[in-house]
Amino acid sequence: MKIDIVGAGALGLLFGGKLAAAGERVRFWARTAEQAALLRKEGIELTEPDGTVHIIEGKRFAAGTLDHTAGTNLAEEPDWLLLMTKQGHITEALLSACGRLAGKDTNIVCFQNGAGHLERIRQMIPGQALYAAITTEGAKRSDGRRVTRAGFGETRVGVHQAMDFPDFSGESLVKMLQKAGFDAFLSNDIGREMFRKLLINAVINPLTAIWRIPNGQLLESEARRSVMRQLCDEGERIFRANGIAYDADIFAQILEVCRSTAGNTSSMLKDILSGNPTEVDFINGRLVEMARAKQVSAPGHELVWQLIRAMQPDMNIKI
């Protein structure tokens, strides 16, 4: 299949590299011409969790930038477009470029955290089959071409609820990902799973970033658990007010995520430590927006949202 990867960060290189190694026709769309040239020249170096290193040569895929497409055959419409940038990078310009790439039969898959992006993408690129993906794959990019798969995770894919025709393609995507070495599944209720992940991230990520601790240390005191409980309770009230279904044991699931990823540094903490903007606007900020719309009190999420915003560079990112 022909696969376009928009965003050559850690997950983009991991998924795109393994898909290219499995024989798919992959095109990377990087943020800079320098990274695209590096990928074409030196290929991708991918390190597996057991230390095995794979080199995917540049001749096995194409690489360019969305604003410099000279020499790239845009007539080759992709079967799948995997949008793998962070939410803060999903601008009108980027979505317009994705719309130019996509043909009438192109399926778009969105890998973003948070909520609200699918509706924006649907407005900017109407008529395309739109999917959401949730992955627990861990990856770390050390430079423009080197990526380490930190651990094996699961990837769940499902059609966006706004689509008004049957899903006949999702299974082919799942099989393609499985062939490339990913534990992939087709979800019949991806919306519920997205909101589950939203609440998990909204509890764990900001607290680890504020206290600058790995996930597991959230469980080391009753005081920390109490704050986690408050954020979870507020999230449940927000979900109920908005008619969103959630699991009754969601707090137990959050605690289990902390245990199973005890040594992990959350993405929000990584962003704070590296001086990069976080995704807090699209996680806690989105919950606050949902709470305000239904006049639900959410002081905990209001507070951590403002604290994280004050800790990061002022990038004027708004929800």
From TrEMBL:
A Gene Ontology biological process term: pantothenate biosynthetic process
Domain Ketopantoate reductase C-terminal: 189-312
Free-text function comment from the UniProt entry: Catalyzes the NADPH-dependent reduction of ketopantoate into pantoic acid.
Catalytic activity entry: (R)-pantoate + NADP(+) = 2-dehydropantoate + NADPH + H(+)
UniProt cross-references to PANTHER family, sorted A to Z: 2-DEHYDROPANTOATE 2-REDUCTASE, 2-DEHYDROPANTOATE 2-REDUCTASE-RELATED
Annotated EC: 1.1.1.169
InterPro entries assigned to the protein according to its UniProt record, in alphabetical order: 6-PGluconate_DH-like_C_sf, 6PGD_dom2, ApbA, Ketopantoate_reductase, KPA_reductase, KPR_N, NAD(P)-bd_dom_sf
Domain Ketopantoate reductase N-terminal: 4-160
Natural source organism: Paenibacillus oralis
Keyword entries, A-Z: NADP, Oxidoreductase, Pantothenate biosynthesis
EC class of the enzyme, as a word: oxidoreductase
NCBIfam families: apbA_panE
The family this protein is said to belong to: Belongs to the ketopantoate reductase family.
A GO CC term attached to the entry: cytoplasm
UniProt pathway: Cofactor biosynthesis; (R)-pantothenate biosynthesis; (R)-pantoate from 3-methyl-2-oxobutanoate: step 2/2
Keyword Chloroplast: no
Cross-referenced Pfam families: ApbA (PF02558), ApbA_C (PF08546)
One of the record's GO molecular function terms: 2-dehydropantoate 2-reductase activity
Name of the featured protein: 2-dehydropantoate 2-reductase
Keyword Oxidoreductase: yes
